[in-house]
């Protein structure tokens, strides 16, 4: 489903639109960008990507956003998946900063903080979780900085470049999020 526009300190999250498909195609054909993503994009084409965006906007258990800088540059996307607002009050989260010139500037951290605020505030979720490869130390640092904790490892869970790799499972609860954010407020 289409999510609302959300504003962070450095980024703005907007609903996905068809005209962004060409950017996604460029990014998803770049092995450096997809190195840390679990999906296989080798058969991707523009028609399929446009259809994916249309379907994403209709899917009731997913929320996806395009990531923009405050200056208006479209740099990636993020999303909540398998949103359960009825029973378990949880969702999975993912992100892709496709524009490599924006890597290492704290934008992923700002995206995550913005999405978590929405998850625990507006959506009233109790938990957000994610999977990350152990060969993504920058991602792991970002997630820990935002309050995620390592909860386990799914051994040989994903096939990447012909090899099975482990996936680290990380999560954050509403209680941990609230404690962390009270700590930040006190430090200011």
From TrEMBL:
Pfam families: Acetyltransf_3 (PF13302). Residues 11-175 form the N-acetyltransferase domain. Signal peptide: none annotated. One of its GO terms (molecular function) is acyltransferase activity, transferring groups other than amino-acyl groups. PANTHER family: GNAT-FAMILY ACETYLTRANSFERASE (PTHR43415:SF3), SPERMIDINE N(1)-ACETYLTRANSFERASE (PTHR43415). This is N-acetyltransferase domain-containing protein. It comes from Candidatus Falkowbacteria bacterium RIFCSPLOWO2_02_FULL_45_21.
